[in-house]
Amino acid sequence: MKKENVSEAVIRRLPRYYRYLDELYDKGVVRISSSALGDRMGITASQIRQDLSCFGEFGQQGYGYNIQELRREVGHILGVDKTHSLIVVGVGNLGRALLKNFHFANMGFTVEAAFDVDLRLVGTTIKGIPIYELRQLEAYTHRKVPDVAVLTVPQSVAQETADRLIACGIRGIWNFTNVELTAEGEDVQFENVHFADSLLTLNYRITRTLAQDT
Question: Which end of the chain lies in a sparser environment, N or C, as judged by fewer CB atoms within 10 Å?
Answer without folding.
Answer: C
